[in-house]
Amino acid sequence: MPKDTSIRSVLIIGSGPIIIGQACEFDYSGSQAALSLKEEGIEVSIINSNPATIMTDKVIGDHVYLWPLTVDSIEQILIERKIDAVLPTMGGQTALNLCKEAEERGVWEKYGVRVIGVDVAAIEKTENREAFRQLMIDIGVGVAPSKIANSFLEGKEAAQEIGYPLVIRPSYTLGGSGGGFVHKKEEFDHALQRGLEASPTHEVLVEKAVIGWKEYELELLRDSNDNVIIICSIENFDPMGIHTGDSITVAPAMTLSDRCYQDMRNQAIKMMRAIGTFAGGCNVQFSVNPDNDDIIAIEINPRVSRSSALASKATGYPIAKIASKLAIGYNLDEIENQITKTTSAYFEPTLDYVIVKVPRWNFDKFKGANMELGLQMKSVGEVMSIGRTFIEALQKACQSLEIGRAGLGADGKHNRSIEEIMHGLEHPSWNRLFLIKDAMTMGVPLESIRKVTKIDKWFLSQIQELVHLEVELKRYSLNNIPKDFFFTLKQKGFSDIQIAYLLGNVTEDEVYDRRKSLGIKRVYKMVDTCAAEFAAQTPYYYSTFEEENESIPTDKKKVVVLGSGPNRIGQGIEFDYSCVHGLLAAKESGFEAIMINCNPETVSTDFNMADKLYFEPVFWEHVREIIELENPVGVIVQLGGQTALKMAEKLHENGIKIIGTSYNDMDVAEDRGRFSDLLKELEIPYPRYGVAENAEEAIIVAQEVGYPVLVRPSYVLGGQGMSIVINDEDLEKAVVKLLGDLPGNRVLIDHFLDRAEETESDSICDGEDVHIIGLMEHIEPAGIHSGDSSAVLPPFSLSEKVMNDMETYSKKIAKALNVIGLLNIQFAVKDEKVYVIEANPRASRTVPFIAKAYDVPYINIAAKVMLGVNKLKDFTIERKLKGYAIKEPVFSFDKFPEVVKELGPEMKSTGEAIRFIKDLEDPYFRKLVKDKSMYLSK
To answer: Which SMART domains match (predicted)?
Structure first.
């Protein structure tokens, strides 16, 4: 059936601010869906309150509403604009819940809006635990024994009937919120109460726990002719008991028998057909008994999910793009295959490579948090890697995580305490993967590890092979490693740093030079979805060690954009937004735009966003060899946050051109000591400071500058390691801990301006002119990280003198640092005097907020300035903000109820929302100021 021509305008509901359990995978899905619908000539409106995402950019939607995600907001859009249909499946649980609420209030019917991509009834069937359980029983799909409970008494009766261990699953929640395991009777009352409170309908499912069973996921698509295809099978490395968002996952499934897979596939199709007649995507989760292959259904989500983004990047099959076309009436065989361009979308991808996803946690930001993993998701991001084998992909994933690991072990960061290792295996946390390797290195038998972890033996044997290879490598020196063995090590994912560590007294560069002399170098393979059965057109590559290279460089002028890696607190989706605009600006300026990134959730790693995508770790060895192959005119590092900036020194040392601000000038700003010296030369006020390399020096400096002092390391993002101390004893503890966590770093000791107000500026400099993008005033006082503060644009209570000083200092610093591109500066204001706290010559979390508030494509402008194709005078910049815009941080403290929710110099927010107000009498603003215990006027 061709598309439904009665659908001329569609509203896409976004997912709102980034929180744990609902991250930028929905920004990716929503963006892809919007572009897909626009291809069909459909007018696309988007509602989303997240300013940091590309989804809320004019390049994605025809009409973007940066409004609160409420039914009232939706109704206002429907009054303002003629909307034919709403697509709620791209915005996660937030969008589905909002769609359901609007249906219950009669909004869709009132304005003649059709819900496409899902049946509202299907949302109820899948989110209501009892309805889902009964439906599965009716269609003959296995489920764990369970009972629904709407009260404390019903829950107690259910537990008594089913027996322990149990799992509590609240209805209508996201990321496992409020859920958990109950192993014994004494724990039940508290767990039940928490679950009932977490559910908006005060309803939980009390279910028999199948801890230790294997967990799998299938991604499905269905069209209006009831054709269903399986896009991808995903296997959890971790067994049941750990939320799938916190599990290491592998695609395709590695240990699934063909009989069991076919059975699972048939059940998934039956489940999708049973929940409704809609056309679109679905994610189904199953559990399999490792002893007899019995299958039970865990849940079904009638929307794109975190796994949908992973499956899209894993297979090259753009699930959200195709799902949106199915939603407007197309059938699968009527849609062009985006990869081959010659076949239809009615096919199931075939992989001749292996995908591994590893989550990224930020427990360091939540002191005292319960770090044990369970039913409630706690990770803040993830990385994906591609290899020819599981173990190669796993090592590459470890290199991608941005936690200072060179691979899976063999980097000097192993744990040698057998007690800590065995405890960590039994009580899984962020580091269990590394502890498995440590246990094997110390001789713990594989079977003992399997019994404790319940991880499939096949995965463990793969890791054990690394241990055997390391033992063999230590028999050699660098110059006598046999070429075949060296080649094997690289095929198993060993980085040059790991090999150097295992050999001892050898550098990474020496290992690199030796393998190059042996002719061992990376080749690049295309992600083609059909295992080369058909010719593929996609410029989407991963590296491995074989003979044939499929990535053939062109003779065009090229620019490499380094991505930001996994989302984490302090470095979020705003940097991916910046990278996407960097790619677009490079393409618009006539360059071939090349992306290097490893985050499966983001738009920058969509296969059609760059001219060429390398889905690789943003890790020096990988970046180096891509640059050697492609020979770009330069590399953009100032859009990818600290991940990309950390690469600047290596690029500089190797004579690779950095586009925009030079490495040395960026280093002046990053090195807190050098930067303060620069401010002194420029006669710009700054807090008294000193630099120390140990605790003794720090105490001397603190006594000179005066307590209270702000203690912080150089070269960090998100306030990592910052603290405010008031005496020598606390200072000594802070410095010792900081240098232990960040060895080799110098410590900056600033006099802390107590009760000062904090402000910010963002600007663009082209080497001659400086354009102030925006000045912002924080509602919270100095001492609370800027990422955790509510920022108001333009300032609401600063004097003209203060704002003039902020502009003057911004321009002086931009010129002194020879900035080409972006510059963010943070100030403290006390008694009408403006002090500079820090400057960052790179993209910031506030530039997307300002760009959305003023409706100006500032990142695009900055990228073209960096590329040298435009000067600031070439642009006509018109700001459209009437009133004020407020950037308000959003936290995920509900995932860590045991943590004190106190804010300070180290950032803890996971996302942000934008709110527009007409004047300072707005009730939202007044309440915000009151809640922060702040004053409105001086």
So the answer is: CPSase_L_D3 (SM01096)
Query: Residue with structure tokens 């740093």?
Result: 497
Runs of H (alpha helix) within 128-200: 129-139, 152-162, 188-198
Rounded to whole angstroms, the Cα distance separating 428 from 689 reads 42
| Dist CA 415 CA 407 (whole Å) | 15
- Whether pTM > 0.90 for this model: the answer is yes
Q: Are 341 and 537 in contact (CB under 8 A)?
A: yes
Rg (CA), the chain: 27
Query: In the predicted model, is pLDDT for residue 924 greater than 50?
Result: yes
User: Minimal CA–CA distance to 549: which of 594, 519, 593?
Assistant: 519
- Beta carbons of 599 and 576 less than 8 angstroms apart: yes
- Residue 254, pLDDT above cutoff 90: yes
Residue 719: pLDDT band (50, 70, 90) is low
152-162 and 188-198 helices, crossing angle to 10°: 130
Which of 173-187, 289-303, 306-320, 805-819 comes out lowest in average pLDDT? Answer: 173-187
Please give the Cα distance from 526 to 549 (Å, whole number). Answer: 9
| Rounded Cα–Cα distance for residues 490 and 511 (Å) | 11
DSSP code, position 565: -
- Tallying the residues shown for the chain, one arrives at 938
For 155-188, what is each residue's pLDDT tens digit? Answer: 888 888 888 888 888 877 665 677 777 887 878 8
Type of residue at 490 = K
Ordered alpha helix ranges (H), 234-344: 258-275, 306-315, 319-327
Ramachandran class of 872: left when φ > 0, alpha when ψ lies in -120 to 50, beta otherwise: alpha
Cα–Cα dist 841/846, whole Å: 13
Is residue 601 a contact partner of residue 595, using CB atoms and an 8 Å limit? no
Helices 446-453 and 418-426 pack at an angle, to 10 degrees, of 40
pLDDT (mean) for 573-578: 95
What is the rounded distance in angstroms from the CA atom of residue 48 to the CA atom of residue 528?
A: 33
Split at pLDDT 50, 70, 90, the class of 935 is: very low
- In 425-444, which positions are buried (b, 16+ CB within 10 angstroms) versus exposed (e)? beebbbbbbbbbbbbbbeeb
Read out DSSP for 194-207? HHHHHSTTS-EEEE
Residues 6+ apart with CB under 8 A from 733: none
For the record, the structure tokens of 324 come out as: 């949106």
Q: Are residues 45 and 12 in contact, defined by beta-carbon separation less than 8 angstroms?
A: yes
Q: Do the bridges between strand 612-615 and strand 540-544 make them parallel or antiparallel, or are there none, so unpaired?
A: parallel
C-beta of residue 401 within 8 angstroms of C-beta of residue 358? yes
Beta bridge partners of 386: 355
Convert the pLDDT of each residue in 623-661 to its tens digit: 999 999 999 999 999 999 988 988 999 999 999 999 999
